[in-house]
Specification:
- There is one protein chain.
- By secondary structure, the chain is mainly alpha-helical.
- It contains four helices and no strands.
- Helix 1 runs antiparallel to helix 2 and helix 3 packs antiparallel against helix 4.
- The C terminus is likely disordered.
Amino acid sequence: MSKGSNRKLLIQFITFNLVGLLNTAIDFLMFTILIWAGTYYLAAQVIAYGAGMINSFVLNSRYTFGKGKKDLQDSKPQQFKTSIRFIVWNGLLLGITLVLLAAFTEWWGLGELVSKVIVTVITVALNFYGSKKWVFTGNRPQTGSS
């Protein structure tokens, strides 16, 4: 991998994580507002998580893995395929997260917060790789080995 493609990959990874921080803020804020408004906490979590996922899809499509505004004008079939891959990938990651959290806390006796940190590091890396190589592949031409 060339120095230029390493730099591009690093910028992409940083952008991906900044989008992730914004997703988390949206999720937390939406959850807090919904709880304050009297929404049942599980329903509030589903809605808040969904809001973060929508933000993630739009920003990652446009800025992290896309070429800008052009990506939002992709054909409807391409947008649909990318949306389905995004939903499938995030569902898979949620399952992986739950299994790993259970493994680290229940089987290996680690604390919940320590487990959450370890699982977050693993799933952020998995999410970036899967988003780059599978979810958003149709949004830009594939280049080299990046």
